[in-house]
Design a protein that fits this description.
By secondary structure, the protein is α/β, with parallel strands linked by helices. Helix content is 24%, strand content 23%. It has a 6-stranded mixed sheet with strand order 3-2-1-6-5-4. Strands 8-17-9-10-13 form a 5-stranded parallel sheet. It has a 3-stranded antiparallel sheet with strand order 14-15-16, with no helix packed on it. It starts with a strand and ends with a strand. The mean pLDDT is 92.
Length: 382
């Protein structure tokens, strides 16, 4: 195997495979390193019924568009993994499975990448390196997880698979963003009693005026803003909004829709003492914040349409899950939960993912251990 390449790509997610497709098209010699199998994180870190949160037209990769009849549908976890594998095979992309990158550094203005495979360590040289290992490849657990009594099952959302996996008893979900809400909905519909420690996260309607909300954001140019512009507008740089791809065209999910199927919406988890969990009294604030962001998004679309009357759109269709909870009836007044008394047997930490760039030379990373770059190009260490 030739250890010198024009380009090395680290990661086989959508970004890495898209980059490989265009390099292959231009006949640029390159390799794509995948630490495990293609789609491994999607299988290992998503639950069985998981569906993508973006419609197919947005999920599709270059050169492999989804057919028109399915463009507004949502792929399941397994369908997406199959799609990635088929994409690699169709275009014969040079993916190297089982090659974990353990070091990336710059020596005399040359890029050196070190991999391990079956216990063997190899150094590779390249004129360019594309880091596509993602910003969500490391599970995050708060220190409070260390205080949960040992007789209670604890899972990060990435380890949750299905309701049958859990022991008898009730469930506390910590975190109210996409994963927390979707898991809470699945468990409640399966007949489980669920308590949710909510978070201050935005919400978006799944569909509005005849289109998926992501299509509106694309039409409005929100998807085209630069990293610098993103930093300048906090509203655009927020946590991923509550939403769901379940159903043929997905559906809106909200604290109030969860409450209607039995989920108890509590404030943020504050502390744990023995068998007792204590919560902030901020559930109402979280509900109102989600309502306000959804209203902001819809108003932005309406203002855009005023300036673009040529764009065909439907009227505002009814969406019970998106109706604002103006008097906070969905908020529970529970601020203390004694776990044995409430028969809590499982805690699911829907506390998200972080990034792991520990394999990158610290000289090219900032104080937050992220690569220093300007619009994607590394700006130091060369």
């Amino acid at each position: 195997m030739d250890l010198a390449q024009e380009v090395i790509i680290i990661g086989t997610g959508q970004a890495g495979l898209s980059a490989s497709y265009f390099l292959q098209k231009e006949k640029v010699k390159h390799l794509v390193f995948e630490s495990n199998k293609i789609g491994f994180s999607w299988i290992s870190q998503r639950w069985d019924s998981f569906k993508m949160n973006t419609p197919n037209w947005m999920t599709s990769l270059p050169g492999a568009d989804i057919c028109e009849k399915q463009r507004e549908d949502f792929m399941s976890r397994d369908e997406f993994v199959s799609y990635l594998k088929k994409y690699v095979n169709t275009f014969q992309l040079p993916v190297q499975e089982g090659y974990k990158v353990v070091n990336f550094q710059i020596e005399n203005k040359k890029f050196v990448v070190t991999t391990t495979n079956n216990g063997q360590q190899v150094q590779w040289r390249a004129k360019a390196v594309i880091i596509a290992s993602g910003m969500m490849n490391k599970t995050k657990l708060p220190y409070l997880s260390l205080l949960i009594p040992q007789n209670i099952l604890q899972l990060h959302a990435s380890a949750y698979k299905n309701p049958e996996q859990l022991p008898q008893g009730n469930i506390l979900i910590v975190g109210g963003a996409q994963s927390g809400c979707q898991i809470a909905e699945e468990l409640a519909l399966a007949g489980k009693k669920v308590y949710m420690a909510s978070s201050k996260v935005p919400r978006a309607p799944r569909r509005y005026r005849g289109r998926d909300v992501m299509e509106w954001l694309n039409i409005m140019g929100v998807q085209d803003i630069t990293a610098a512009q993103l930093q300048q507008n906090p509203k655009l740089n927020a946590t991923q909004p509550q939403s769901s791809g379940m159903g043929q065209r997905g559906h809106t999910i909200s604290y109030q829709s969860l409450n209607r199927i039995g989920v108890k919406i509590l404030g943020s988890l504050k502390e744990i003492k023995g068998d007792c969990c204590y919560f902030e009294d901020n559930a109402k604030e979280h509900i109102h914040f989600a309502d306000q962001t959804s209203t902001y998004i819809k108003n932005s679309i309406d203002e855009f349409l005023k300036d673009h009357p040529e764009i065909i759109h439907a009227g505002a269709e009814p969406d019970d899950a998106d109706l604002p909870d103006k008097v906070s009836v969905s908020a529970s007044d529970i601020v203390k939960l004694l776990l044995p008394d409430e028969y809590i047997s499982t805690v699911i930490w829907a506390t998200g993912f972080g990034y792991d760039f520990s394999y990158i030379d610290s000289k090219v990373c900032d104080e937050m251990e992220k690569p220093k770059h300007f619009e994607g190009k590394i700006i130091s260490g060369l």
